[in-house]
Amino acid sequence: MYKNIFLKKGKEESLKRFHPWIFSGAIHHIEGEPEEGEVVRVLSSDGTFLAVGHWQIGSITVRVLSFSDIEIDAAFWEERIRVAYEMRCAIGVAGVEQNNTYRLIHGEGDCLPGLVVDIYGKTAVMQAHSVGMHVDRMAIADALLSQTKGAVEHVYYKSETTLPFKANLGQENGFIRGGSADNIAVENGLKFHIDWLKGQKTGFFVDQRDNRSLLEHYAHGRALLNMFCYTGGFSVYAMRGGARLVHSVDSSAKAVDLVNKNIELNFPGDSRHQAFAEDAFKYLDAMGDQYDLIILDPPAFAKHKDSLKQALKGYTRLNAKAFEKIQPGGILFTFSCSQVVSKDNFRTAVFSAAAQSGRRVRILHQLHQPADHPINIYHPEGEYLKGLVLYVE
Q1: Are 94 and 163 in the same domain?
Q2: Any domain includes 384
Q3: CB 22 within 8 A of CB 49
Q4: pLDDT at residue 307, as a whole number
Q5: Cβ contacts of residue 115 below 8 Å, gap of 6+?
Q6: Which residue has the higher pLDDT, 219 or 197?
């Protein structure tokens, strides 16, 4: 039987609103001593059942799996993964010939806090961000195989860098079900090498799929700069969109090598593309005004609230440089993937940059994460990706 966690009086209100996190300061006492990653029951101060979830040492002490008093067993994982897969089929990203690259599980957005699963062809890449999801990884892997109607045949576990460091789990990345050397996946008819072995995140930034499609719409005849290009997703879409010139820039030589491979995979021998391994700010300082379409998709400038102020300065500086250099009539795609940076924060930073440049700027689109990265309506913190498409006179 699961151990019981009793909350302090009045601390159950957020759970009554179905928020999936319980912070350490809300806990009054615990029956027994749960091990990290163990499933526990959460009760109000008067003993009323509230939720079941994974116990973890730290600020977020319980991540809620269910607000019903149920057992977290194989049937639970199968049901959650079946529902998630059916939703991806319903929105047209799973089970379609032209796309086998999508997010299947998006943590709190799929009522599975601490778990991320991305699909690349027949391989599911799983990341645990909590000890509980690590403990249950094998049951989750089995459910991925059984509940996706043959879409998933292999499960690669990639949690070496995402699990809490203090948990000291000694986890190594590797296949926990099946095994495949085929790392080419298809997104909207374009092919990409996915580096799930050593790449960032699960090997590809699935969350920019819709925004890459929008960029393709604007690319025809333009000279494009893809800054912080990583695997070159935006660059490949721009090539298909008819850009006359595409330059990809990343500080990582390994990323630049992968960009070139992805361009060659889709457009062999095409001379419109060049890639450069260089620091972003150095490149922006040195470049001329040859670009009339610029993408700024940097890594998270702020991972914690205490770095927010410095991050906003970074976004302002980066965008100011782009406004300074982009051609008249140019289009700027600019993003923040920092969860602690709100839409208003980001917009203020970009507006400050525009004001510094003295350019006339108009908003064409306000961008966000795609539908396979759903936001739990009771967990607004899940809205992390924000972007603007700007027309610069």
Answers
A1: yes
A2: yes
A3: no
A4: 75
A5: 105, 107, 126, 127, 128, 129, 130, 133, 140
A6: 219
DSSP string, 318-367: HHHHHHHHSPTTEEEEEEE--TTS-HHHHHHHHHHHHHHHT--EEEEEEE
The residues annotated with a catalytic role in the active site are 337
Report DSSP letters for 252-286, one per residue. -HHHHHHHHHHHHHHSTT-TTEEEEE--HHHHHHH
Same-domain status, 122 and 53: no
Q: What pLDDT, in 10s, does the model give residues 281-308? A: 899 999 989 999 999 999 877 566 777 8
What does each C-alpha distance from 12 to 63, 277, 310, 344 come to in angstroms? 14, 51, 35, 30
Same domain, 277 and 341: yes
Q: Which tokens in the block code for residue 292?
A: 């009339």
Could you list the residue range(s) of the whole structural domain that residue 238 is in?
A: 205-392
Residues 21 and 79 in one domain: no
Place of tokens 């929008």: 214
Find the length of the chain: 393
Is position 243 within any domain? yes
Residue type, 165: F
DSSP 3-state of 180: coil
pLDDT given for residue 8 in this prediction: 96
DSSP characters over 113-147: TTEEEEEETTEEEEEESSHHHHHTHHHHHHHHHHT
**SS3 (DSSP) at 288:** coil
- Residue with token string 């209100």: 13
Same domain, 113 and 249: no
CA distance linking residue 323 with residue 46, whole number of Å:
59
Residues 126-154 have pLDDT tens digits of 999 999 999 999 999 999 999 999 999 99
The enclosing domain of 128 has a CATH number of 3.30.750.80
Angle ∠(236,239,240) on CA atoms, nearest 5 = 90
Alpha carbon distance 58, 75 (integer Å):
29
Confirm whether 277 is domain-assigned. Answer: yes
Among 109, 150, 101, 149, which Cα is nearest to 125's?
A: 101
Q: Report yes or no on 346 lying in a domain.
A: yes
